[in-house]
């Protein structure tokens, strides 16, 4: 079972991954976006870890809800409301349970992904974070490693796609041939689940 | 018509200068519109291009006179942040609405309409109709 400690570890590992990969995320965003994805997410996840250190969170749902609120407040780009909605909706779906199993987490993340789709209006194949998140949630029943592999494959699979949402969509066909920064950061977030479960906090 | 309480207007842009200037322009074209609270929420807190949920919440609170608040946005994260805040339910004043409108033309239409004492529905309709204002 996954308790609040696990979810705090997930957010801490995700923050460390974003720190480590910030330059790469920004470089991907420079190709088809406005070159701020890495630095924006870095600011957001630093605020998440700071808030989790300061505020007591007793349940998995409370951890994700707090993290989501921080991301909406601090990221400053579209990733803020999108990731914020993902985590906050997932957190609300987990309710007050002190511990949750992987099936409940998958169900909650599905609710979060639905929230992201409603907010941004994107569909699978539009070259967005959804292209990593949806396969990851689908694979979660087979474990965190499977979810991670699915998310990473989904992110790589955005390379030949044409962007249909966000600033990259203005580029039309010129967005083809670049990996989507949002799908890439989503893969980091899912990979952090596996790392949090292995207890190897921030050591990769 | 509203019951005497003016509709507040909040202008959200990636740029602090754009939000403030459009607010000034809209108020100027509305002949001052002293009674209409217009608040700008531009850029990130502490400067830089982007969107700040904190600035949006503060602007909405300052523009709220009880007659509802019409929020107009420019692009991308400005739209998504307002929608995310509205979905939360308690971060923006009661009666706050994201208005689907072109930013500048919609802002002028919204402020001019609000200055007549019109309610939120009429302000929203006027701002949205600004999409149909052809220049050629």
UniProtKB/TrEMBL annotation, chain A:
GO cellular component: cytosol
GO function terms (MF aspect): glycerone kinase activity
Record-annotated DhaL domain positions: 5-195
Keyword Kinase carried by entry: yes
Key words, A-Z: Kinase, Transferase
GO terms (BP aspect): glycerol catabolic process
Signal sequence, start to end: none
Membrane-crossing segments per the record: none
NCBIfam families linked to this entry: dha_L_ycgS
Protein name: Dihydroxyacetone kinase subunit L
UniProt source species: Streptomyces lucensis JCM 4490
Automatic annotation (TrEMBL), chain B:
A GO BP entry: phosphoenolpyruvate-dependent sugar phosphotransferase system
Domain of life assignment: Bacteria
Transmembrane segments: none
Residues spanning the signal sequence: none
GO molecular function: phosphoenolpyruvate-glycerone phosphotransferase activity
Keyword Transferase recorded: yes
Keywords: Transferase
One GO cellular component term noted in the UniProt record for this chain: membrane
Domain PTS EIIA type-4: 6-136
Pfam family, one: EIIA-man
UniProt keyword Transferase present: yes
Name of the featured protein: PTS fructose transporter subunit IIA
UniProt organism field: Streptomyces lucensis JCM 4490
Organism lineage string: Bacteria, Bacillati, Actinomycetota, Actinomycetes, Kitasatosporales
């Amino acid at each position: 079972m996954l308790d609040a400690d696990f979810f705090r570890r997930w957010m801490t590992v995700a923050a460390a991954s974003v720190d480590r990969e910030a330059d790469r995320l920004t470089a991907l965003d420079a190709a088809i976006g406005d070159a701020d994805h890495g630095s924006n997410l870095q600011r957001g996840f630093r605020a998440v870890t700071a808030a989790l250190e300061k505020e007591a969170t007793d349940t998995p749902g409370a951890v994700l809800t707090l993290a989501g609120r921080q991301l909406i407040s601090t990221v400053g780009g579209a990733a803020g409301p999108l990731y914020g909605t993902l985590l906050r909706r997932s957190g609300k779906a987990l309710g007050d349970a002190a511990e949750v199993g992987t099936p409940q987490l998958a169900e909650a993340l599905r609710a979060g992904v639905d929230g992201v789709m409603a907010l941004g209006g994107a569909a699978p194949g539009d070259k967005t974070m959804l292209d990593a998140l949806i396969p990851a949630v689908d694979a979660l029943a087979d474990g965190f490693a499977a979810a991670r592999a699915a998310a990473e494959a989904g992110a790589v699979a955005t390379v030949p796609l044409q962007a249909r949402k966000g600033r990259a969509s203005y580029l039309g066909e010129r967005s083809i041939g670049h990996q989507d920064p949002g799908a890439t950061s989503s893969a980091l977030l899912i990979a952090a689940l596996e790392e949090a479960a292995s207890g190897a906090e921030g050591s990769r | 018509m509203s019951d005497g309480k003016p509709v507040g207007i909040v202008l959200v842009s990636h740029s602090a200068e754009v939000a403030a200037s459009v607010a000034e322009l809209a108020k100027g074209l509305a002949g001052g519109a002293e009674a209409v609270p217009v608040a700008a929420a531009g850029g990130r807190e502490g400067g830089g291009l982007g969107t700040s949920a904190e600035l949006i919440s503060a602007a909405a609170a300052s523009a709220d006179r009880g007659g509802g608040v019409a929020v107009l946005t420019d692009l991308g994260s400005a739209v998504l942040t307002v929608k995310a805040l509205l979905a939360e339910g308690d971060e923006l004043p009661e009666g706050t609405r994201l208005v689907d409108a072109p930013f500048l033309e919609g802002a002028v239409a919204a402020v001019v309409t609000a200055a007549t004492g019109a309610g939120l529905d009429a302000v929203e309709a006027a701002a949205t109709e600004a999409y149909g204002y052809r220049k050629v």
